[in-house]
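User: tokens in, sequence out, please.
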């Protein structure tokens, strides 16, 4: 029988939430960029439309689980809030959550409105989609950098 401590369960749930959030963000960006590169607006719009119902419930839940178990790990482990990797993780979480909350949800709607007004092949639609996936790329890279920093724990 394998003995797993409470701390280890918290760590597993924290890591799984990070995998869902960072990995999900990364794959959506890759799919969107592939559509942009192929100049396939239909594919880009499909990625946006498929991502919308996922971004809210799945990414929000993963982000809350990630933060909740992250704070629990600090409290139960031998970590301190002044450790660089903890501060970086909290900052990356906050920035990414803010981007998702204040940019992505509004940008999705703005792109759909442009499609309704000007049609899916309008240059303005492609321009907004490029901007959306640029921000998404930066957000995904931030999340992946947090995974790196949380794993390697530099400056310790």
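Assistant: Sequence out:
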């Amino acid at each position: 029988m394998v003995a797993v401590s409470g701390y280890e369960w918290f760590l597993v749930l924290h890591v799984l939430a990070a995998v869902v959030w960072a990995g999900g963000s990364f794959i959506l960006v890759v799919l969107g960029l592939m559509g942009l590169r192929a100049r396939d607006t239909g594919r880009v719009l499909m990625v946006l439309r498929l991502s919308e119902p996922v971004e809210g419930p799945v990414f929000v839940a993963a982000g809350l689980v990630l933060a909740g178990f992250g704070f629990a790990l600090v409290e139960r482990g031998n970590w301190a809030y002044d450790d660089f990797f903890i501060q970086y993780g909290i900052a990356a979480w906050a920035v990414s959550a803010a981007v998702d909350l204040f940019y992505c949800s509004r940008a999705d709607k703005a792109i759909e409105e442009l499609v309704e007004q000007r049609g899916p092949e309008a240059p303005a639609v492609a321009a907004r989609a490029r901007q959306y996936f640029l921000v998404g790329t930066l957000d995904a890279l931030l999340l992946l950098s947090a995974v790196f920093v949380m794993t390697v724990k530099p400056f310790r």
